[in-house]
Model the fold of this input.
Amino acid sequence: MHRRILAAFTLGLMVCSATAQDKVLRVVPHSNLSILDPIWTTQFMARNHGYMIYDTLFGTDEKNKVQPQMVEKWTVSPDQRLWTFTLRPGLEFHDGKPVTGEDVTASIERWGKRDAMGQKLMTFVERMDAPAPNTFRMFLREPCGIMLEALGKPSSNVPFIMPKRIAETPADKQIEEHIGSGPYVFKRDEFKPGDKAVYVKNAKYTPRKEAASGTAGGKQVFVDRVEWNLALRDAQAQVNALAKGEVDVLERPAFESYEQLRKADGVVLVNKDPLGFQYMGRFNHLHPPFNNAKVRQAAIAAMQQEPFLRAQVGVKEFYKTCASMYTCGTPYGTSKGSDIQSKSNMKKAQALLKASGYDGTPVVILKPTDLAAIQKLPDVAAQLLRQAGFKVDLQAMDWNTVVSRRSKKEPPAQGGWNIFLTAWLAPDVWSPLTNAALGAAGEKSWFGWPSDAEIEKLRDQFARETDDGKKKALAEAIQVRAFEIGTHAPLGEYVNPLATRKNVTGWVIGTGDVYWNVKKN
Amino acid sequence: MLGFILRRLLATIPVLLIVAVLVFLMLRLTPGDPAAILAGDAASSEQIAEIRASLGLDRPLPVQFAIWIGNLARGELGQSYFYKMQVTQLIGQRLEPTMALATLTIFFAVVVSIPLGVLAAWRFGGWFDRALMGFSVLGFSVPVFVLAYILIWIVSLQLGWFPVQGYRRLADGFFPFLHHLILPALTLSVIYIALIARVTRASVLEALGEDYVRTARAKGLPEIRVLVRHALANAAVPIATVIGIGIAILIGGVVVTESVYAIPGLGRLTVDAVLARDFPTIQGVILFFSFIYVLVNLVIDLSYVFLDPRIRY
Done:
């Protein structure tokens, strides 16, 4: 009798929990979604949220070519100073209003104040206007070689198009409304920070005819609803939930989980982003010992990529060494100038350090203890640098302390730092302008603040150049110079395949975490 | 009695004020800059400085404190730096899962531990008593996350009885709500079962040695009546104290369980806020926890009146 009651009770519970599973794609994203303004912050989760609800003028396909997205056609004047863009018909915001040229110019203007590449582009832009509802123009001071690359950039900050009234929010303030013209509509009323974010299919969205590829092509939506599970962050609990079919996708499983995931019934791994990520060790150029280029070179020579990749990723098929500061396998990927690292060894590093005049100043390395994707890198860096002859002070802290600490320009003894290590998504480092670590404008540059007039001059030339061959040569020259002055140490590349239930198919190959074209059978 | 309650409620004001000052100062003295975290990886120092200014974090500490206390006096806990939501709203969203988990945990703990503790005292020195003491040591010693993974593996993955993660709100239906909550509550209750069973055993054992129990037995009362009406009733004060403290600790201390079972409760909110340096949320949540502690203590004190007629306020 008791068994029957228990069985009926359990069955009842199971039936109740099964009813909520129709055409809902249940995703475990790689992190928590906290900020909903993808222009205000460069956080990847905000960018992914942006891809759900906003559309872009251009996209980047899986072969890293920029393709039109909201734009139907465009023309460039013979003197290359006037760009005229026509929007494709049928573009409509979630509030039912059509997307106009004015919405676009306001959006570009706001993005151009926040994004590094946008800021660069805006130095060329004299003015913008919208002569017709479906047209916008950009008048340039001089020809510019990065227009499409900038407008089609796939990673943070992506120039998402918002309604004019929202895009007019000051760039230093977060937007309050979340209305786009993208393939999904954000359910603000169902958003529970730290718990879940919900997106429903935008029935009015008109996808392009081309097949989906990267962030370009037709953004077809085949599920009614996408739910991001923001509460499920324990790596083992994620694996259990996927194995039991309680969630459909793990965006970026922990490397330690792959063995278990491979054995789980009904689970497959999908390497939808073959370019993956690049690890990087960044030096602080303001303070000893890394205010000396020769010391930085010695450190780069010591920081061989294989030990970092082996320790951090571990799964051989998921990582590779890459002698380029740009993503390997992309147009600017090159090994030029990398001999200091790629053809070096510990003896050479020791000799370089000895010749540099290094005085034994301890090197403060920031070690995040709570970010599984990079937490082993600092230990490897510390060991390699010690072997080369450096004195090392490895300081453990949580990732957000690292984030705060690395912005401090004070000397290491006063709360500053000498080295931190991080990872970048491929498009963030695949060109001299997207790669923040290659900026060398001193204290205006990204953390580490290298100062080098030659690099800055070359980057300016790169931005102006319109010929692809010459751009490639400039990118090479920038890398050669960057290795010479030791802006940073590239530490190899890796991929982080997603894990999904077998009944979920249609993943778009390319950069970024996007959920169009995905089918749940 | 009413005067006692009023006095105790008034006493919460200075307690909360001291907590407010301490939390505010500690947060400002610990490393970490919310502006840098908000800005993201590729932000420049200038952008971070802009954000810092927009949050008011560039102002002198006394000014920041005055603004916060002023808002607090108006009943506003402030707005989360990250979520752009009122902290009261965030707490409201997270309160139900934590309260539900705490309530079911305590329910399991009380229902299981008190009879076990009474039986162990009654059979003092016997195999049951020794087994219970052994279990309680195990219950204290096994980390919650280990127990959670073991239970998930057996009960969820092998037997398929319960989901491995997640929370359903009561509004979504009582069965889904209970279905998702049973396993986390069972996991969490083990340590409380161990704790309360030990305290119950010790208290009842002491009571069983008293003259009034001997008298009750001499009168020929049935043993069950002696145990429940005489021994347990007189041992209730320390047991109630432990249960009360358990509730207070549970509300703020369920973070591991919430993480393993992906329950979006207050513990997880607190940890997220601490990691993100979301000052208004941390301050608000800690004040809320302090208030709950004070309130639970008050309820425990009041319960003594009913449990022990000799106590008067």
Chain A touches chain B through 63 residues (CB under 8 Å). The radius of gyration of chain A is 24 Å. Confidence is low (pLDDT under 50) at residues 1-21 of chain A. The first helix of chain A runs from residue 2 to 18.
